[in-house]
Amino acid sequence: MSDQSRRKLLKSIAAGSGAIAAGKSLPESWSKPVVDSVILPAHAQTSPPGVTGITDLRLVSTTLTIGGPTVDYDIDLNNASGTTLSVVGVQSYIEQGVATRSAGGFSVGFASSCNGGAVGELPPGSCTQAFSIIASNANAGSGTLVPGAAIALLELRDDGVLIDERAIGVTLV
After folding, report:
1. Is 168 in contact with 63 (CB distance < 8 Å)?
2. What is the distance of C-alpha 125 from the center of its chain?
3. What is the pLDDT of residues 61-88, one digit of tens each?
4. How far is 166 from 155, CA to CA, in rounded Å?
């Protein structure tokens, strides 16, 4: 069926159903649609290229047992500032309703160098750091974590100043 035939068919259907205004508002010719923007769900968002921050976060499992054991994760970091950041750390939290509990943290480069930097340094470029997260009511914070849906929140900080954060939905058991 040609584009012209489809257009005539749509106009006749619109006119036949009493929606004459809709038929008249159809364009004279068909054109390929243009997508102006795409919105990603929050769990799929990452920092844009060229930004200093967290570019990806991968948990081995999104199910955490309250009180342990820990769940490993990889976090990809990027420093687009052009200079080495020197007091950089990642702190994680478990948030559930009004409860917020610390879930572990580390200084960048503590286990493996990030682009040749010393512990706490984030030199320009990208690197991956590995650590683990734990859901525990014994950790610093407030409220009581209970089985059910929660959020794991990871913050990237330089000398205490928040640079970026990433949240991922988790299930507590």
Report:
1. no
2. 20
3. 999 999 989 999 999 999 998 899 989 9
4. 7
Is 42-172 CATH 3.40.50.620? no
Nearest-angstrom CA–CA distance, 114 and 109:
5
Write out the two tokens for 54. 């967290």
Rg from Cα positions in the chain: 25
User: CA–CA distance from 113 to each of 82, 106, 130 (Å)?
Assistant: 18, 13, 11
**For residues 159 and 107, is the Cβ–Cβ distance under 8 A?**
no
> Using CA atoms, how far apart are residues 167 and 92, in angstroms rounded to an integer?
9
Measured CA angle at 157 (ends 153, 158), to 5 deg? 175
pLDDT tens digit string along 31-60?
Answer: 554 444 444 444 444 444 567 899 999 999
Q: Spell out the residues 6+ positions from residue 136 whose beta carbon is closer than 8 angstroms to its own.
A: 66, 67, 68, 101, 103, 145
**Token pair for 121:** 């340094």
pTM of the predicted structure, to 2 decimals:
0.69
pLDDT confidence tier of residue 115, bands split at 50, 70 and 90:
confident
Give the residue extent of every domain in the chain: 1-34, 42-172
Measured distance CA(86)–CA(105) in Å, rounded: 16
